[in-house]
What does this fold into?
Amino acid sequence: MASRNRRDRFRVPPSPYLFIAPFFVVFAAFGIYPLIYALQLSFMRWRGAGEAHWVGLGNYLYLLTSPDFWASLGNSAVMWLLIVPIQVIAGLGGAVLLANAKLRLRGLFRVAFIAPFVTPLVAMAQVWIVAFDQDYGLVNHVLNLVGLPDVGWLTSTAWSKPTLALLFLWKTTGFAIIILLAGLQAVPGGVYEAAALDGASRTRQFWSITVPLVRRSMAFLVVVQTLAVFQMFAEPFVVTEGGPYGSTTTAGLYLYDHITASDLGTGAANSFLLVLLVFGLSLVSVRLLRPKDEAS
Amino acid sequence: MNQTRPGPVQYAVLALLATVFLYPIWWAVSSSLKPAAEIISDPLSIGALTLDNYRAMFADVPIGTGFANTALVLVVRGAMTMFFCPLAGYAFAKYDFPGKNLLFGVVLLTLMLPTLVLIIPLLLEMSALGWVNTYQALILPGSIDAFSIFWMRQTIAAIPDELIDAGRVDGAGEFGIFAKVVLPVIRPGLAALAVLTTMNVYNDFVWPVVAVNDTSHQTLQVVLATLAQNVTGNRIGADFATVWGELLAAGSIALLPLLVIFVLLQRHFINGILAGSVKG
It folds into this structure.
């Protein structure tokens, strides 16, 4: 924070305004202007060419009564259930293992865990297409070797979401481990020894010391990943193209489909509904995960 | 955690996790280097080393164009981020000026704006400007991003005021202080910013796929996605093995550069990844 007495020591030159101007110029041109335009567009019926008609709340009402719109939210909600709880548990487990001060090869493990996070999603989506192919893929090949039948990973509505969730989990669980590890390492070293002296068991130490201390990191992780899951786009776009039978048409992909159909007014309305949802979800996650003893 | 020496069980679990994380990358790269027919006939085999898949891929896929376009966008966007974001961060960290809190509030608000909401209106704006399929469409939107400004403000706020005042006493101009005093001090933060920006721009997909649809301006990720859709789009009659070989070759060649940079500069990567989780 800037201190008050510095203001008295020298007058404010115009420089700070010049220093922040570039951001605001870019933001006005490619942030505020399109946002206002999108808001206006969301009350219009427009197919990208020809006349635009004012339809008031028509686009919003159309979406809110459209089974496809709700199906896209439902698909994203299922994705969330398949991803976030597993990631928090696996992330915490990995972080606890890595946090041990006497662990050897920690650097090596850390590199292995974060490697997926730096790979391009599209490249790995290609690998998923090939590895989970029903007829010739690696995964079914291995299943056959141990005597199990083929699974329609990408061709059945039952398996399509878990297969994409697996890609998301594979790619970002290392990120979760690193975030939670940073939270754990902020724990003062002597706390556990003191607890052990007081006769607290390992399990007791975990629930009474570790979990409360990583709460903040956990809350951050859940919020970030919730936003990411509800904006998921590249995975279904590349791997399944929203199929089979729309089972992987996530909220993000459904929004994109309005562009393909050049139904831009509806698309704009869909964007704002999605933003409201995402904001709502972040507020709820922050509320639920806020430590009880903190008022912030 | 408790400071007991980790036993074989812990190491086994960690090794298993590491295998799960590394195997898909290993499988993609090793499969891309074996004869195409064998990818299908025996996915687990370590085949004879061959570059056939790469030869076929370079012949059929405009991957060189993809790399060149990504490199161009990366250089320009990277330069803009590395210059303007610390500069704005410095103004917010070390100056008092009327309207500062309000303006910084705007920066924080844009942090929470989902990318997806802007896709459609941005696309229309690009059409109106005649910028669809241009480099400026790939470069300008989001080139000076709120997150980097927020992060640089945190980093620069930690510099003691005395250091900056000393620069002022020496008669340096306002920008001179930024260039000569602030930037050298935050070098580790700048390295992390450079690495994170590289990763984000290199892997960016949603906006490029919307803004660009001609081959000559496609970034690497869009080239890859187009190739993947050719595979899923026509299963019937396609020469499977060849196409899969090309797909894995393209994917492998795309993931290796970042992976190499990551292994060499992992400390900066991890600092960059953790930058978002600091107490905000």
Observations:
- Chain A has one domain: 68-289.
- Residues 53 and 206 of chain A are 61 Å apart (CA to CA).
- The mean pLDDT of chain A is 89.
